[in-house]
Write a structure and sequence with these properties.
Elements lengths: L1 E13 L12 E13 L11 H15 L16 H15 L11 E11 L2 E6 L2
Antiparallel strand pairs: 1-2, 2-3, 3-4
Length: about 130
């Protein structure tokens, strides 16, 4: 099994409506995002995939939510947790690169999205 990872970052504000604590107040994070692709076979050039398209797509998705209030995005239902941000990013990458959607027999697929709110706090969405 091979795995490659690309990274991007963005800054955004949010609050958690259904949270009992300080995170229910508007605040911001400098998020770091990792996109992991796994696969079983390398291409003729010895690569699982070309980093360029995945990196470009991840950065474009993060760019769309950079410097926003995440609560203004309907997808998050007023609770833009790191977990929901991870699945949001996953869905947008798959929309742009459908060949990375996990299906039986795939040689490479988008395995996971990690969203770090801080260096010590990460949520991960893993494709099933």
């Amino acid at each position: 099994m091979f795995e490659v990872r690309v990274t991007a970052d963005f800054s955004a504000a949010h609050f958690l409506k259904d949270y009992n604590g300080k995170c229910e107040n508007l605040h911001g994070h400098n998020y770091k995002v990792y996109a992991h692709v796994r696969g079983t076979e390398l291409d003729r050039g010895g690569m699982l995939l070309d980093f360029t398209k995945l990196k470009k797509t991840l950065r474009e998705v993060c760019g769309k939510i950079d410097h926003t209030n995440l609560n203004d995005i309907e997808f998050f239902e007023q609770n833009p947790s790191a977990e929901r941000i991870a699945v949001y990013i996953y869905n947008h990458i798959i929309e742009e690169i459908p060949l990375l959607k996990k299906t039986d027999g795939k040689k490479a697929w988008l395995y996971a999205i990690d969203v770090f709110e801080t260096e010590t706090s990460r949520a991960r969405y893993i494709a099933e």
